[in-house]
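Input.
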Amino acid sequence: MDVEQSLRHLKETADATLLRDRSFTPEMERRVWERIRRKGRRKGGFPFSLLVPAAVALAILAVSPLLAPAGPPFERETGQPHKETEPILPGAVWHVPTLWKPSPSYTESYGQHAFTYYGTKPVRIMTEEFYEGQAQKVMWLLNGAVAKEVQIVAVNEQGVRKDLGTWEVGGRLYDADAHFPSSIVLPEPGIWKLQVLSGGKHFGLVFVEVKPGVSPANRSLVEPLITRYLQSHKDFGGGSKENRIGLELLGMESPDAEHKTVYAWVSVLAEEPYNSSGVDAPARFDIAFDGSSYRVVGHRLPAGGEQYWPSIEQMFPAKVVEKIKERVRSN
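Output.
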């Protein structure tokens, strides 16, 4: 095969694979031949039989900075995973595995009982959905040799770490060698890794998803309580049956089952709001369990005048303040 045939063959191969959909500019071609001439001037010369492969190789090197954005696993500017999968070579696919995802759920039978759990041995959990800032009961199932007390540590995708305490381990439950109940709070939405440490060493882990907003269970509990409170308290109209009441939950903090702080936008207006006073503002409500039932034990409204926004920033978490500002801007 002569030089011209070799060149055509290599060019066709490159055009069909690595260099497909790419074109050489005159400046790029000049730089390639300049590099070939520099190599040819070295002592001992440059074997002509290697000239064509060298030209193709140097051409690839010359355009490699232009090829990079076409399908690398990470963006050069942001360092984030590339969202497209445009392979450079035939059959190749850029694939960045998603390591941070919730552990799958399984349902199994033990004796005459069926139970559903998340994760795989040696650490599994039985629980409901997690919501930001709200206590969630979790039953832990452990398999293997474990200490009498274990520590739980939570870490999210952004590297935020939260110590969830030390817990005493009990005996067997279902097919687990050991178990313990807990109530934990995860502060932000997203994927969290829950790691169990036994004797200060890694024992196992499980991944969970924390959802934003107020959980359906908490919503169904607090909305009727706050509505009745708005209907009866003097700060919100003092029990007039003609008042129209609106309630929008903006967030909740529930460090345990007995205490809940609810952030909401409330609207208590008469049938003819332009002819009477009313309330249309953000408010904070404190709810507590009194031994037999939950009730609203107090509330707070923002100050008036120049202290309105400073009082809001003092009353509410930053994420709720942003929701309030967005609501004000949209009205």
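The helical segments are 3-16, 26-40, 51-67, 216-232, 308-315, 318-330.
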